[in-house]
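Predict the holo structure. Ligand: D-xylitol-5-phosphate.
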Amino acid sequence: MISVSYLKSMYSKEETLAKIMASEADFLHVDLMDNTYVPYTNFTLNELLLDLKDSKKPLDVHLMVDNPLKYLPYLLKLNVKIITVHLNIKDNLGKIISLVKKSNVLMGLAINPSEDVHLLDPYLDKIDYVLVMGVNPGMGGQPFKMNAINNLKYLQDKNILLGLDGGVNGEVLKYLEGLKIANLVSGSYVCMHPVFDEKIRELKKYFSKNN
Ligand code: DX5
Ligand code: ZN
């Protein structure tokens, strides 16, 4: 699957969303920040709900926030397929996991490049998906950190769906050879190019080679 993030784009937010909706992307990757878990904000929850209430593309929601429980009742009413939260947040992960699983949505945990991948161990049999971060959560357009490759290798035989988010581009695909990744997330590589589908097709070649 290819999931496209609209955080950093050469087009306005409205144009970017319309272009992703019309593209060959499988999911829309929705990044939400709260200015506490990460020192940035992008869209407010209300703005997001307004923009995505009629989304035809399934949503892959990535919450870089300390209190996902505050947002989940609203987000779970959208066309959501995956919810991902981070490990070191203020809300209780057990509560989040049970709420998301009850809603028949895939539950994901993200692992940052600077975090010890073993922190995931106690959760691996309780969740569906791990989002391996290729960059520190926050801005779009950051360079890929190679520690993500070690994390992907560790998780290969753990019987869990994997995603990769941050810094993914044509060059990074070379490092992914032989690794199984169900969901490749890309932001600026796709959205800083005038024709989104050209880059999406380039990324899709990864799946014909590795799966
Ligand atoms: C980073 C976000 C990513 C980001 C990806 O904090 O979670 O989803 O938008 O953008 P690129 O592909 O530009 O790194
Ligand atoms: Zn993201």
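The chain has one domain: 2-210. The longest strand covers residues 27-33.
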